[in-house]
Amino acid sequence: MPQANRRMKDIEVPGTRQFANRVDEFPDAVDLTLGQPDFETPQPIKNAAIEAINTKSMKYSHNTGLFELRETISQYYREKYEAEYDPNGEVLVTVGGSEGIDAILRAILDPGDEVLIPAPTYLGYEPIVELSGGVTKFVDMTETDFIATPELIESNITDRTKAIILNYPTNPTGVTYTKPQMDALVEVFRQHDIFIITDEIYAENTLEGEHISLSSYTDIKEKVLVVNGLSKSHAMTGWRIGYVVGDKTIMEDITAVHLYNTICAAIPSQYAAIEALKNQRHVPEEMNASYIERRDYIYRRLIDMGLEVSRPTGAFYIFPSIRKYEDDSFKFATDLLESVQLAVVPGRSFSGYGEGHIRLSFACSMEELTEAADRLEKYINMLEEK
Ligand SMILES: Cc1ncc(COP(=O)(O)O)c(C=O)c1O
Questions:
Q1: Ligand 1 pocket by Cβ (under 6 Å)
Q2: Which domain range does residue 208 map to?
Q3: Whole-angstrom Cα distance, residue 265 to residue 273?
Q4: Is residue 352 part of a domain?
Q5: Which SUPFAM superfamilies match (predicted)?
């Protein structure tokens, strides 16, 4: 029998998926596992795609994306972060942020190259690092309030380190970084010849203060590769539009991987993205108003239940500790689902450093969130009585 490559043995089905599949067995379950906005894509964005289908050419675009979209992204970065990216050669439109991450890692990694990933972390990075021949080195953030500190990063960089992947606002913890915190990290980055891949897909879902993009540190532009997209900001997960911005010197190689992989992102989706970034910039703020209300509610409920939890300042996740009751987050989540029909993601899905926690998504209605909190409380009361 022909076999898949040896690396596939280590690639697991993500914990989020495993749980989503189990949730289907419980029709009355309240599902807080989802990693996408509960809002629908705004109508003007849909209309822009429909209009484009009817009036524009639907042939391949330039490999890097429609010029108008690249120009719009470039302008967005100039206006928002005072960062200059040439639409010709420094902006690449991808099939979601996911494809951007894949193209970057495949373009930069040689076999054995180490990639630092502060953890707990989004589960989309490690498999791609490994499939690209790289070696994942998780950096433990459990003792630093889930923040990647300069000391932590510095002490993990070796001669073999090729890149670090940052993600903030962070999935699964909801952590964001202040300007002084980011300044201090950048000081470390200035000292080392490594790529800084920064997944800022939740940038527009910053719930407090301002998002400090690594693109705004223009003196390290040659090292920084920013991944972003429309999935979370404009509730466009199904459109599959993301992008990478970075320095010309490396973007050519990343574009080559993208070219052989996808040729270009889907054209109707590219037109939708132009509308989103040109005329619908107010959308994330409107969604954030709901996320803030829900965050405040669920945070208060978890505190009242006596759970240890930090207050998220970005994204739409909250990551309480369940160690008081159980170390094994898979066991806890399975039991929670079976006994009170509440679905959450076990923290271990976000690397071993997420163990002892569960991730609750508050990208759901207030009614669902209230019901979920009631069920969790009921379950915890059951554990207390045991
Ligand atoms: C941190 C992070 N990065 C990237 C992605 C993938 O996003 P996209 O839909 O743009 O591929 C996700 C999706 O959940 C995510 O949480």
A1: 35, 96-98, 122, 124, 167, 171, 199, 201, 229, 231, 237, 242
A2: 59-279
A3: 11
A4: yes
A5: PLP-dependent transferases
